[in-house]
Write the structure tokens for this entry.
Amino acid sequence: MVLMVIVYLLLLFWENEQNEDVVLSSLEHLHVDYPQNPVPLRYCNYMILQRVIREPDHTCRKVHIFIHERPQKINRICTSSKKMACPNYSDMFCFQSETKFSMTVCELIDGTTYPACRYQISAVEGFVLVTCDELGPVNLQGYVE
């Protein structure tokens, strides 16, 4: 009986762990901060730690972008008439937003292994490039000023 309870708890924990990975890798979780978090100092350091943003090998991400726009408006990018080959992938299509979005670009200035990463903050406005599937935006590919 005790063994069955332990097995059940292990399976429950494993299932929750799997679901957490899916949620944490969504475009909205990784790149959307709307309304913008009011942390005035060290915005990038705070947001990257809070959202556990890192490379798969637990190293610091070199550059990360936060978009300060409503998720509904970001979802509409996938219906944009501005469809093109993605700059980084020749066999994938990107969609470019019709309007410029307010964003924060975080560039790594110190550290190599997460969570000991320090970032420089830059506020930018630009057209967002995303890849899409039938449900909406999947990956942020970058931006064009």
Q: What stands out?
A: Confidence is low (pLDDT under 50) at residues 2-24. The longest strand covers residues 118-133.
